[in-house]
């Protein structure tokens, strides 16, 4: 019986070595943040083009960049744009294509406080720098008149794993706080001055939920999908905004005018009264040269589809659509892929 | 006078006897309670989301019901198969060497190295297999995943094989030799069968352990939303699916993650039962 | 006068190298010896290759930090300043805590299952315990978050503070996550190895040993603790090695419950970080060669720690070798 099983498996393995003819199999890797929408897109695209299989795995933005440079995947995805240094190290020229927009929101768990809190930019920076240590600090109180904040120590929670969400959040902090910029900086992983590290959005959420007086930052889609209450953040124009898709798209629209040709831009703390300050693009990283004709055609076709039909799936999954001027620029940029 | 002391000592020893034996019972009970808690939690959360689709369909993107993990189930089986045929023979033979043939220094070095290998974090083994099998050919593959898991299977197998071979009393060896059997014949026909129960326990334990490993597969087998053909393509596996789904924002995926955990456990259970039935053993060589 | 063909050829001249080797091969035992030796050597090859890869891929960080890597407390990916000390500390503490819980518990349970429980029950329970080893570490992590962390925060923590709070070990704020929680989760993960292997080894102890002890008037416990367990000592130590190895290298479950804060603290309630956890957390996102090299160097450091710990443990075995046990 055991022998039969062994033989059967060997035969299965040998027989199954030939792939289906005409199938274009693309492997891609990168950011976890857009994984839900990407998996939706690739699935819908596959239904319409049954010979194209795009296998995307969310191993992290850094992983995506590295695998792309090593040549083990056909394209990558990242929540933070590649730096000049990384681009110069790459043997192949890499093009950035923004796909969707997302936002980061502050969530908290304060005994006795049930409403939405307003956070000034200095309040968030101060809390995460470890300088504001109590909930009834004047910086927090002054934006929340009428709310009884306790004299408790703030328990700060951040991400322990390197992530695009941290990148966006620290990018925002670097822009609003020179002290943060010089002391800590922007990256997917930083040397956090204070706080506990939770793994992934659910790690942070779990810690915040279970620990009184805690504050953490999570992705908007995660908060919406799991009904997690979150607060308002003050934007560059001084308004306190609760994150929503309109606010995120407004942040991107403000940046669209000065969009660089390679689409590498940060839109945190964007100007505009309706712009949500902790927003960001996420990008697909496509090699400028793709030798395989089938793969090249498939990727270019997918990008064109993504910019038109694909965007219609965004909002149902709580991702914001790309603003029209950006879409137009990207459609032209597809021609750059040789 | 000394009679009283004797009595007191005896009573103390008897009391100690009862206390300690009870404590062992308590310990066993505590462990079993935790075990049932874990299994219960898993069954409850996983059972809720288990349906026929789970076993037959491919994953669906979030928001659509009816997806499954059929490819991940097959993937885990294929990977475990590779891990077994590469890792178990190495482990078994090394165990035999250490127990029966080993010279003093070389044995010491081998044992030490095996323990070292056992302590390497699974993600480092994954990185190693990546450098060895993925980079040279520039693509992820089932083979790479199998190699990574095989490396993790070896140390536990070595240790348990050696321990249970050593447990066979010298009288059995001497008996066989007295009948004229050469050393290797003794090992093959007398010692190994006698120790097979314990050795098998070790092998199953090592396979069970790697069945749930995620980190070594992330850079080797990668994962796959579709069916994987042959041994050279990326392949889905239950632990990686669990990991991906568990950290996602969606409740539906969380439930699927629990279901996958339950299925994984079920696979290991079936493998355990199957092997024991086939080999018809009921444990290591026992003297009682 | 040698007429029998089975006597040794001390009259014939010694054969030259190759001929001697081929002659040996006709001897089945030698063949078996060589084959098994080759397999054993494979393990050495794999491990050497592993260390080589780790060494090569951490060259940037090794040349930049040198020995100070072991003593620096900072871990800053932005400024490029990396040090291993908090992670070494965290790895040691969690491993020690987990073994301190798992070894007594596991050994006691194994004794119960091997000596006292009826055979059927013992087999059934052992079978189920083997299953625990197959539970993916992600699931242990989730269970840690949902069950152990709240328990620690609401029940266990306050209890410990109430009774032992004067010790620096149990001082400071209790968030629920931390060294102690990670140690407990690890203990649950490694206890199946200890129970499974120890139980099997205890069952191999010859019946005569127990009977002899009891014949001399020993109580059941005395014969178990002073005769049976020492006889199975090396096997039990082996299971502890397995457990230690798993505790040192565990990634997913630990990172979910330890708080992931690279700081050194005396309190077990404080959050910490282990080598395996930080590699698992940051490896996929690490861009930049120095960062990557530093993470791989941490892997090398863990290897070194395992090397030393194993050495110490073996010395411990040798030191306790005298005093009865199964003849090696």
Question: Terminal Cα separation of chain A, in Å?
Answer: 55 Å
N-to-C span of chain C: 40 Å
Q: How much helical structure, as a percent, in the residues of chain A?
A: 25-40%
Name the chain pair with the biggest interface and residue counts per chain: B-C, 103 and 99 residues
How many separate helices of chain A?
A: 13
Shape of chain A: elongated
Give helix % range of chain C. 55-70%
Please state the overall shape of chain C, judged from the principal axes of the Cα atoms: flat
> What's the quaternary structure here?
heterotrimer
Order of helices and strands of chain C: HHHEEHHHHHHHHHH
Written as H for each helix and E for each strand, in order along the chain, the element string of chain A is HEHEHEHEEHHEHHEHEHEEHEHH
Describe the biggest sheet of chain C?
Answer: 2 strands, antiparallel
Radius of gyration of chain A: 22 Å
Strand fraction of chain A equals 15-25%
Radius of gyration of chain C: 26 Å
Low confidence ranges of chain A: 8-20
Kindly estimate the percentage of residues of chain C that lie in beta strands according to DSSP.
Answer: under 5%
Helix-strand category of chain A: alpha/beta
Structural class of chain C: mainly alpha
How does this structure look, described?
The complex is a heterotrimer of chains A (338), B (288) and C (328). By secondary structure, chain A is of the alpha/beta class. Chain A has helices at residues 2-15, 35-48, 61-70, 84-89, 121-129, 138-141, 164-176, 178-183, 200-210, 220-225, 245-256, 293-308, 324-333, and strands spanning 24-30, 52-57, 75-78, 94-109, 118-119, 155-159, 196-198, 214-219, 232-234, 240-241, 279-287. Chain A has 13 helices and eleven strands. With 288 residues, chain B is mainly alpha-helical. The longest helix of chain B has 48 residues, at 2-49. By secondary structure, chain C is mostly helical. Helices cover 70% and strands 1% of the residues of chain C. In chain C, a hairpin with a 4-residue loop joins strand 1 and strand 2. In chain C, helix 4 (85-116) packs antiparallel against helix 10, helix 5 packs across helix 7 (179-203) and helix 10 packs antiparallel against helix 13. At the B-C interface, helix 1, helix 3, helix 4, helix 5 and helix 6 of B face helix 2, helix 4, helix 5, helix 6 and helix 7 of C.
